[in-house]
Amino acid sequence: AAMETSSVSIGARRPPGIVRQIRREERRRDVRSVTRIRASGSKAEEYVVSDRTKRLLEGCCKIGPSETEGKPQAGGAGGGTTLEALRRVDGVWRSIRNMPEGDAAGPAPVFVTESSVRLDTNRCDYDVAVCGGTLGILVATALQARGQRVVVIERGPLRGRDQEWNISRPELESLVALGVLTQAQCDEVITKEFNPIRCGFYDGESGAPSGDASAIEPAIVTKDILNTGVKPSLLLDAIRGNFEAKGGVVLEKTAISGISVRPDGAELDTSPLDGGDGPGGITARLVVDCMGFASPIVRQARWGQKPDGVCLVVGACARGFDESANESADLIYTTTDITAIDQSKGQYFWEAFPAGSGPEDRTTYMFTYIDAHPSRPSLADLLDDYWDLMPKYQGLDSIDDVELLRVLFGYFPTYRDSPLPARWDRITQIGDASGMQSPLSFGGLAALLRHLPRLTDAMEDALLSDLLDRDCLAAMNQYQPALSASWLFQKCMSVSPGTSPPDGFINKLMRINFGVMSSLGDEVMRPFLQDVVKFGSLGKTLVTMTTREPMFVPQILIQAGPGPIVDWFRHFIALGAYDLAAGIAESPIAAPVCRALMGTAPSRELIEKARNGEAARSEADFAWDFAVLDKRQKFMLRRKVEAWKWGSGRDYDDQHA
Ligand SMILES: Cc1cc2nc3c(=O)[nH]c(=O)nc-3n(C[C@H](O)[C@H](O)[C@H](O)COP(=O)(O)OP(=O)(O)OC[C@H]3O[C@@H](n4cnc5c(N)ncnc54)[C@H](O)[C@@H]3O)c2cc1C
């Protein structure tokens, strides 16, 4: 799991006053001494968890019975508990920092094998096996709504985690059109809507005190962006209900331990865990890997490859904030300059929003972008800073003034060659496993909702056209210049080892960038805040930044380095080319030609219509087919046209029309 949470109840508990008093007494006893643990891993080092972190994590779980007490924890990004979870996640993060690269890593652990021996079956058990049930259940339900026979296999319980996902309402409502959720269910899973949404950056030169957000003028104040709080457990429960009601199969507490890819299907080795309900093996025509960052399939595909960037995040949902000031959210905020973090340097960013569990409850995340150099800090190091900085950021005297309901910590890896290119026939990645989410926000749900209509069409097309080889699957997850261009932004927001930019450099960059976007208006700013990078908007922003701050641009180039800048420029040009191609493909003259070349993708709906004698409509649907390309070429062209549109961010215009 890339992300863990220490969770406790928001129900029965001691009165906040008593909790605060106990906490204050404990704090007085708190010693700044640390517990030193000899870490395991390829490179021995000291792993330090401060007594304060231990006390707060342990206390967090003592305040009341967990909302999930008696129920097994959900897995994946965000599942888990307490100090043990912190040690475990830090252990994985340490092993990533110290991992051998390339040939030095030795042979990859084998999870996927390929064989030319056909499956001994007339028909696979399922059309699609979705591995991993967090975002996997969304994908499964969308495919099932298209008439596919789908199974979801989840190692843990399929129940969502105790945290909140923030998205924009139209993104969530896109599930209605896909038949995944009803409008009424959409309204039910929303636990909170809040406004306004702010972005702001500390300016040390202004004389403002560091640490306190109230002293920092926001660079942007907007509304209705990522302002909808969704509870994963409610969302997943509702979708699962819809999936099972229509005959979908969920196998919980069932781990997949290997996949054999054959010419006519894939065979999944499944082992029921701890009372789980899976059979010993399952066959499916297509395997959808939704097993997150830690997917064993991705591990094999990326063996020996260190992430190019990492976002470390720690945070908490806490009770006891001033209710009258708990309506707005910060999308991204800084309250300090670049600071020392253990042996490294980095810039801390903040996100904060009201939680749906109560009017005094607020979630605050502190995150930093770094690389996976061995000297980088642990999550325990970040938590130590969080206990000090969060109260200042939120105008509290001390961390003991609020009641911790949940503590969260995790790492999000980024690879520059994302989304992950398909490695095998019959296996495709979706969700965090695919690397399709923005390297800046890591909003995996938001990214999936944006791409799900396209991916559902593409997977249905691949299944009905029987085009499930590696090249066809790679065409579904192909290069997206907008995603690749975003990678440089992450790099500019981090401090590379051996470099020492001025302490205020990243804040200045952010202030200029967000100030320019704000002045260019909603058309530029709103897509960017929702992880959509568009050629025109980016171009305008860069030109305006250069004219307004000509002396600062060379500093950006020096800080990023010539290699990444050249690389980024390539993606920027590609973004322009994709935008042009998508514009032409959608133009009144070219669109019919394009459609006639691509033909109409097969779908169960069309097949049913034809079967039911609705020939007239079916013919109309299938009309305009020049029939100059074969089935495979048409499939590839359909994927290319989608790649132009989604890769250039033009899909945003449809969703937000
Ligand atoms: C604290 C936090 C806050 C976040 N906030 C937001 C937000 O506001 N908006 C947003 O869009 N995103 C947010 N995200 C990101 C979002 O949670 C992730 O993008 C999302 O959970 C990814 O889902 P996934 O299904 O791809 O992977 P995961 O959540 O990692 O789930 C993978 C699943 O696969 C299962 N699995 C793994 N191995 C096996 C196996 N061998 N066999 C069977 N099953 C297996 C795991 O048990 C797990 O359930 C947040 C993440 C965190 C941690």
Give the secondary structure arrangement, pairings included.
Elements: E1 3-7, H1 16-29, E2 34-38, E3 46-50, H2 51-60, H3 82-97, E4 112-114, E5 126-131, H4 136-144, E6 150-153, E7 165-167, H5 169-177, H6 183-189, E8 190-193, E9 197-200, E10 218-222, E11 228-230, H7 232-245, E12 249-251, E13 254-262, E14 265-272, E15 281-289, H8 296-301, E16 309-319, E17 329-333, E18 339-341, E19 344-346, E20 349-354, E21 361-370, H9 379-393, E22 403-414, E23 427-429, H10 444-465, H11 470-476, H12 481-492, H13 505-520, H14 522-529, H15 535-548, H16 553-560, H17 562-586, H18 590-598, H19 604-611, H20 615-622, H21 631-647, H22 651-655
Parallel strand pairs: 4-13, 5-6, 5-15, 6-12, 9-17, 15-23
Antiparallel strand pairs: 1-22, 2-3, 7-11, 8-11, 9-10, 13-14, 14-15, 16-21, 16-22, 17-20, 18-19, 20-21
Helix pairs in contact: 4-7, 5-10, 6-7, 10-21, 12-17, 13-14, 13-15, 17-21, 19-20
The structure holds flavin-adenine dinucleotide (FAD).
Flavin-adenine dinucleotide is lined by residues 3, 75-78, 131-136, 153-156, 163, 165-167, 255-256, 290-292, 296, 408, 410, 431-433, 437, 442-446.
Report on this structure:
The radius of gyration is 25 Å and the shape is globular. It is α/β, with parallel strands linked by helices. 39% of the residues lie in helices and 20% in strands. Helix 6 (183-189) runs antiparallel to helix 7, helix 10 (444-465) packs antiparallel against helix 21 and helix 12 packs antiparallel against helix 17. It has 4 domains: 3-102 and 304-321 and 360-414, no CATH class; 112-182 and 226-303 and 417-476, FAD/NAD(P)-binding domain, CATH 3.50.50.60; 481-559, no CATH class; 580-655, no CATH class. Flavin-adenine dinucleotide (FAD) is lined by residues 3, 75-78, 131-136, 153-156, 163, 165-167, 255-256, 290-292, 296, 408, 410, 431-433, 437, 442-446.
